[in-house]
């Protein structure tokens, strides 16, 4: 724990130093700082700094691209900062960018953004629909964990998007042998929460779960 505390302190010190270089910061720097703080530091210690970062990020929001939008949203959602004022501008910027630059949104950007919106229980329906439309196009590029995250997001948001679900389920069936126990259990919860009975998927999940039963906790 002492080593963890030292790591948290170092991460925060580096992030604060970078933030003080405000005039030199670019959107990617702000997003990277947010992501790093969310991954490397304890929630309580990070909250004041993340609030400071969000104030700076809002000033540069018009320059944020898909990766900066998705990574920043993911970081604040991971830290459970649901009420942070950065989410409104991020959502507005995401809608604008998806409308004009949809091809720039890689599948992982879409998955991370949807997960973030699900965590904060977003009611941004137009944005959610745009993201799910995009997620239905190239799910084959997503890793199992991201596919599971898309299903979890749909379940949490209680949004039934047929084309996305169909495309994602097809990829889950294809990639099922690569799924980890935690992702499988999360997927089972998502299906139950959505009351979604898809027999081919259930059959594949049952076989994969039995094969990995020794790894379940």
Notes on the protein architecture:
This protein has helices spanning 2-19, 27-40, 43-59, 66-78, 87-100, 107-119, 125-135, 144-157, 162-175, 181-193, 199-211. It has 217 residues and is mainly alpha-helical. Helix 4 packs antiparallel against helix 5. It is globular, with a radius of gyration of 18 Å. The two termini are 24 Å apart.
Q: Low-confidence stretches at least 5 residues in length (pLDDT < 50)?
A: none
Largest sheet: none
Quaternary structure state of the chains depicted: single chain
Number of helices: 11
Give descriptors for this structure.
single chain; 217 residues; mainly alpha; 11 helices; globular
SSE topology sketch:
Blueprint: H1 2-19, H2 27-40, H3 43-59, H4 66-78, H5 87-100, H6 107-119, H7 125-135, H8 144-157, H9 162-175, H10 181-193, H11 199-211
Helix pairs in contact: 1-2, 1-3, 2-3, 2-4, 4-5, 4-6, 5-7, 6-7, 6-8, 7-9, 8-9, 8-10, 9-11
Short description:
The protein has 217 residues and is mainly α. Helices cover 71% and strands 0% of the residues.
């Amino acid at each position: 724990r002492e080593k963890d505390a030292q790591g948290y302190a170092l991460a925060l010190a580096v992030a604060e130093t970078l933030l003080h270089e405000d005039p030199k910061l670019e959107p990617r720097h702000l997003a990277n700082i947010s992501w790093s703080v969310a991954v490397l530091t304890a929630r309580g210690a990070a909250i004041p700094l993340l609030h400071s970062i969000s104030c700076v990020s809002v000033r540069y929001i018009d320059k944020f691209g898909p990766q900066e939008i998705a990574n920043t949203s993911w970081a604040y959602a991971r830290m459970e900062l649901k009420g942070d004022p950065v989410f409104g501008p991020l959502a507005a910027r995401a809608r604008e960018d998806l409308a004009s630059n949809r091809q720039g949104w890689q599948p992982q950007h879409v998955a991370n953004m949807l997960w973030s919106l699900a965590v904060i229980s977003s009611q941004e329906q137009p944005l959610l629909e745009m993201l799910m439309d995009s997620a239905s196009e190239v799910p084959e590029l997503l890793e199992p964990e991201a596919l599971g995250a898309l299903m979890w997001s749909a379940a949490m948001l209680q949004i039934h998007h047929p084309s996305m679900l169909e495309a994602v389920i097809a990829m889950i069936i294809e990639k099922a042998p690569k799924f980890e126990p935690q992702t499988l259990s999360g997927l089972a919860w998502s299906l139950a929460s959505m009351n979604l009975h898809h027999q081919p998927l259930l059959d594949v999940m049952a076989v994969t779960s039995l094969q990995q039963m020794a790894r379940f906790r």
